Amino acid sequence: MKALVVDDSKSIRQIERKYLEEMGFTVVEAENGQEALERLKENPDVRLIILDWHMPVMNGYEFLKAVRANPEWNEIKIMMVTTENQQKSVVEAIMAGANEYLMKPFDKEMLETKIRFLLEGAL
Hints:
This protein is α/β, with parallel strands linked by helices. The protein has one domain (2-118): Response regulator (Rossmann fold), CATH 3.40.50.2300. It is built from five helices and five strands; from the N terminus they run βαβαβαβαβα. It has a five-stranded parallel sheet with strand order 2-1-3-4-5, sandwiched between helices. α3 (60-68) links the parallel β3 (46-51) and β4. The longest helix has 13 residues, at 10-22. It is globular, with a radius of gyration of 13 Å.
């Protein structure tokens, strides 16, 4: 299964990539939402997106809305993984189409638990 990791922090992308690869995922990366849209077009088999909120060029919320506006990508599961902890922001992300939300900092077990719940039966 293929996952797309979208975060402007290279170190966070590396951590998420490592955890996802240990779970058996093939991982593609993007530094911002605009680059992530390009990666999605290049990788139509992406089934999971791990998405940061605060990024330059196109932030995670804008990217989320763009993905959910495209019917081709309706089946992709999207998990926001961010320091954005305002209740209002969590609600906005879920209402815009995020399937799950995880606060930074996180550990491997927290990420794996959320992903397994999100994709139950698909792994």
